[in-house]
Specification:
The protein is mainly alpha-helical and 215 residues long. Helix content is 75%, strand content 0%. The longest helix has 50 residues.
Length: 215
């Protein structure tokens, strides 16, 4: 009789454990399902944001996505917030070339050098690589990595290149014996859409100086 009671108690205990295990499994599956559904809804909304843009705005979003190494949906989300491509471009540029102060603070606590984080921002502009990417590639102080291991000299863009000229265009201007300050002026003319590069070259071929072209 005593054996039977103990047997029943053991069975009851096993059943309780099984019930808790089943309940836990069901809860875990439901939580994962809800989380996946939530993530799917977020992704669907992001895609809808992009599709809500006009055809020309979608092309602009695609361009900025490639330029700033991010998804077109993220660009669309920013554009919907600002409703102004100039403001959107400024926000994307800031996010690409700088590291937010709160993230700098946390990264310092995690072992990164503030000097390296600031240098990463400077090199971001000079190389066209994302500041955060550069900072992480340099690593923490304990990694003892040098910047020369992260950024090659060939990656450093000249002032003219930072302003938008290609290496080939810079070379063409150098072949015209244009000084650095004049090459910078050409880049600025192109940025302001005053001239195209071909138009500048035609003016130079005609014997005009940069002072004459600017006036």
């Amino acid at each position: 009789m005593e054996f039977v009671k103990k047997h029943k108690v053991i069975l009851a205990g096993i059943l309780v454990v099984l019930l808790f295990a089943i309940a836990g499994t069901v809860y875990f599956m439901m939580r994962n399902h809800n989380q996946n559904k939530k993530e799917q809804n977020v992704e669907k909304q992001r895609e809808e944001n992009y599709l809500s843009l006009s055809a020309s705005d979608q092309e602009t979003a695609d361009l900025y996505a490639e330029l700033y190494e991010m998804s077109r949906e993220d660009v669309a989300e920013q554009q919907i917030k600002t409703k102004d491509w100039e403001k959107t471009a400024k926000e994307l540029e800031t996010a690409f070339f700088t590291i937010p102060e709160n993230e700098k603070y946390q990264m310092e606590k995690d072992g990164y050098s503030l000097g390296d984080l600031q240098e990463a921002e400077k090199l971001s502009i000079k190389t066209g690589r994302k500041a955060m990417e550069l900072a992480k590639a340099k690593g923490k102080i304990s990694d003892k990595r040098k910047w020369s291991e992260v950024v090659k000299d060939s990656e450093i863009l000249t002032t003219e290149e930072q302003l938008g000229l290609t290496k080939e265009q810079v070379q063409e201007l150098e072949n015209k014996s244009l000084k650095k300050e004049d090459r910078v002026e050409v880049a600025i003319l192109l940025l302001n859409e005053t001239y195209t590069f071909d138009e500048v070259m035609k003016e130079l071929d005609a014997g005009k100086t940069m002072e004459e072209i600017k006036s």
